[in-house]
């Protein structure tokens, strides 16, 4: 199993983590195979991963305005590490709710792995 698939809901994520480099997301969701993509915007190890994300399943044109903007930050916390995910440019409230549910599940899975 791909290392990212363990916590990212079975999704394989490939990138070299250099700003400007591509990032791909592949896997199965609700019984369907998918292949999404984006670009690494910024990396500040060990605190920030910022990237874009586009999915053809959204039914939108592959133009910059259709990409989600996702920033994952890590901050020290009294009880460990605070992980914050901010996803911007989501088209509808329904899709925002779905993104929230998916991130909640992924982060809960990650929290269970030491």
UniProtKB/TrEMBL annotation:
Locate the Activator of Hsp90 ATPase homologue 1/2-like C-terminal domain: which residues? 5-111
According to the lineage, what is the superkingdom? Bacteria
Q: Per its UniProt record, what InterPro entries does this chain match?
A: ASHA1/2-like_C, START-like_dom_sf
Name of the molecule in the record: ATPase
- Family (UniProt): Belongs to the AHA1 family.
Q: Name one Pfam family in it.
A: AHSA1
SUPFAM superfamilies of this UniProt entry?
Bet v1-like
């Amino acid at each position: 199993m791909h290392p990212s698939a363990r916590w990212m809901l079975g999704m394989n994520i490939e990138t070299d983590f250099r700003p400007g480099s591509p990032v791909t997301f592949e896997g199965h969701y609700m019984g369907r195979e998918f292949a999404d993509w984006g670009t690494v915007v910024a990396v500040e190890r060990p605190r920030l991963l910022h990237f874009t994300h586009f999915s053809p399943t959204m039914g939108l044109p592959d133009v910059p305005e259709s990409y989600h903007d996702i920033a994952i930050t890590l901050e020290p916390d009294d009880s460990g590490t605070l992980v914050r995910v901010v996803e911007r440019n989501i088209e509808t409230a329904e899709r925002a709710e779905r993104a929230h549910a998916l991130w909640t599940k992924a982060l809960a899975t990650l929290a269970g792995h030491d």
